[in-house]
Specification:
By secondary structure, the protein is mainly alpha-helical. Helices cover about 45% and strands about 5% of the residues. It is built from 26 helices and six strands. The protein has a four-stranded mixed β-sheet. Helix 9 crosses helix 10. It is flat and about 105 Å long. About 0% of the residues have low confidence.
Length: about 650
């Protein structure tokens, strides 16, 4: 009776009852069988309950009979001895087909098909696309004219239009490799990293402010610049991922590898008063899990936060095992500064940041901070008798003192000190401070020093806690309801971690880009393809699970994924491959004859006609108007905002 929900094919709430060790261990809420004590065993409590269907077991169908409950009770009281014989399943359990889903299968390079129009094949991409077209009786569109091609390439690779001189030069270039030369020139432009970095920063949820109500500014532009630079120098994608997920854990990590960890410091930060900090810390960790799942695996891991995933083979326990990798990140620790020569030193307590300052800047700042600390101590001593006055009643004040106070402060002073609210006490203290010129003078001195304190550039980074936090399953997704404890791990549907015990973020990062992982290469090449053709070979880019959209060209997707790995995870190699294909170079002119055969152009009988992105519309307008600023990098610009 229990096996449909707690048997070999399904384990609701992480509980499996058809195996001895699993049954003894229990589910996410803990043990359900306590050998020798049926009164302490949740199994008996649930099947014998008279409560509603949400508590009693089984939740549907007829209840267990009194005799069956007595059998279970006696078995547990007698020690819950387990037969070595396999259990007898008395009702049919349909096997799950989730594990057979195509995205969880290993990436294998398919054979390149032979096609009739072999002359149209510039590289294997064309063979796969033509094979589909020919099976439907569709011929490909002719190549676009040269002016269109240079405009298309410039907008796709740089996000900028070509100049009239560049168009004229390409149109008149009769060399057989003119197109390839153009592609190489554009891929070598620093604006390539800007254009393609923008897409990555969207995935990384990059922002220059913290979010929530206060939405205060944050300094993380160095991470943005790292992304642009990494793409421009064609940092191998596997290393690109490793440095962003765990650059701080690499042996002898460089400062730029630590900057890269800003990827997961782009979470929202709530610094409002009165909040439960741990609640928002948990939300940040959950965000990192969901982002990692969507960006690299194309999976909706977040659906398993509160319960086992309804459609994909990911349990709630596996969600929190994945969560455990990010649970040890220091959110509000001690900031670190990086001076000349890479020397690291500790500064004031604050959220983890990496500072970049010269030795002179850091020394001058510390000297000024020491002076400020001294003045603050003096101010505290000076304030003590003044604040003591603020705790007195109105009668004890002199006429001169009362005359300097506002009526609302005098009203508060009529209230006995012990009965004043926190805000009333603060208001009175502030009033007495403002009355005293020696206060104000010292405060002005402190502010003057703060104004000349050197502003050292910094960026948010990740850093592990010295002592790891224990991770738990959060029952129902509630951070206050802790279930069983868990250790870092990955979903069983995917290849295992090479390291079974003591795995950390660096192990996870390497696992994400392991050649055996079938999802990361597929998801990444699909996302690149989508930018060139308007939709991916899998249309829903962040969901490669069982509820995702079907593949338009299954073999092409796997061929591209295999090629990506074989090309050393080179992003520029994949861009070059795609834009060199005849499929990309087709005319985008509308073909009425395809309206019925392929109305959405999924088979790519012509090139897609794409709208420019908002940023490209602006940059294009600036460029053709002669106002485009070619400078790349540096602190972010905050445009004027209305009150």
């Amino acid at each position: 009776r229990c096996y449909p929900c707690h048997g070999p094919s399904k384990q609701t709430n992480g509980l499996r009852l058809d195996e001895k060790e699993a049954a003894r261990q229990g589910g996410y809420s803990g043990r359900v069988i306590v050998p020798g004590s049926s009164t302490q065993s949740k199994l008996v409590q649930r099947v014998a309950s008279s409560r509603d269907d949400s508590f009693r077991m089984p939740p549907i169908g007829p209840r267990l009979t009194a005799k069956q409950i007595a059998t279970l009770t006696n078995w547990i009281d007698q020690g819950a001895k387990w037969s070595e014989d396999p259990p007898v399943v008395t009702q049919e359990i349909a096997p799950s087909k989730q594990e057979q889903h195509w995205s969880f299968q290993p990436v294998r390079r398919p054979a390149v098909p032979r096609v009739r129009r072999q002359a149209r094949v510039r590289n294997p991409i064309d063979a796969f696309v033509l094979a589909k077209l020919e099976s439907k009786g569709i011929s490909p569109a002719p190549e676009a004219d040269r002016a269109t091609l240079i405009r298309r390439l410039s907008l796709d690779l740089l996000g900028l239009p070509p100049t009239p001189a560049e168009v004229d030069a390409f149109v008149s270039d009769t060399r057989p490799d003119a197109y390839e030369r153009l592609v190489d020139r554009l891929l070598g432009s620093p604006h390539y990293g800007e254009r393609w970095g923008r897409h990555w920063l969207d995935l990384a949820r990059y922002a220059d402010s913290n979010g929530y109500n206060h939405d205060g500014p944050r300094e993380i532009w160095m991470y943005r610049d790292w992304v642009i630079d990494a793409l421009n120098r064609d940092l191998a994608f596997d290393q690109f991922v490793i440095e962003q997920i765990a650059g701080d854990l690499l042996p002898s990590a460089t400062k730029q590898q630590i900057v890269a960890t800003g990827f997961h410091r782009n979470t929202l930060i709530n610094l409002e008063g009165g909040i439960d900090f741990d609640q928002y810390r948990v939300e940040a960790v959950v965000d990192r899990v969901e982002t990692t799942g969507a960006v690299f695996l194309g999976l909706t891991l977040g659906c398993a936060r509160c319960h086992d995933h309804k459609y994909d083979p990911i349990s709630q326990k596996e969600f929190y095992r994945f969560y455990a990798f990010f649970n040890n990140i220091d959110e509000l620790g001690a900031e670190y500064q990086l001076g000349v020569g890479g020397k690291v030193g500790r500064a004031r307590a604050h959220e983890p940041i990496l500072e970049f300052g010269t030795a002179e800047q850091l020394a001058r700042r510390e000297a000024i901070r020491a002076q400020i600390a001294l003045l603050e101590k003096e101010l505290e001593e000076y304030e003590r008798p003044i604040l003591a006055k603020a705790t007195e009643c109105c009668e004890t004040l002199t006429h001169e003192e009362r005359s300097k106070l506002e009526p609302k402060i005098l009203e508060i002073l009529e209230i006995p000190p012990k009965e004043r609210s926190h805000f009333q006490k603060e208001a009175v203290e502030d009033a007495f401070k403002e009355m005293d010129p020696g206060y104000t003078e010292r405060q002005a001195g402190i502010k003057a020093l703060q104004d000349i304190e050197p502003k050292v550039p910094s960026t948010l980074v990740m850093r592990e806690l010295p002592k790891p936090r224990q991770a738990y399953v959060h029952l129902g997704g509630d951070f206050l309801r802790k279930g069983i404890d868990v250790k870092p791990g990955v979903p069983a549907i995917l290849p295992p971690l090479p390291k079974s015990e003591g795995a950390n973020r660096l192990d996870l990062a390497r696992w994400l880009v392991d050649a055996k992982n079938p999802l990361t290469p597929r998801v990444t090449v699909n996302r690149i393809w989508q930018r060139y053709f308007g939709r991916g070979l899998v249309e829903i880019e962040n969901d490669f699970g069982t509820q995702g959209s079907p593949r338009s060209h299954p073999d092409l997707l796997d061929w591209l994924a295999a090629e990506f790995i074989d090309q050393g995870w080179s992003l520029k190699a994949m861009h070059r491959l795609i834009v060199d294909a005849a499929t990309y170079r087709q005319s985008s002119t509308y073909r009425p004859e395809l309206a019925k055969l392929d109305p959405t152009n999924r088979l790519l009988g012509r090139q897609a006609r794409l709208r420019l992105e908002a940023e490209i519309v602006r940059d294009t307008a600036m460029a053709v108007g002669g106002l485009f600023a070619a400078k790349i990098g540096g602190p972010s610009v905050f445009p004027p905002q209305p009150e």
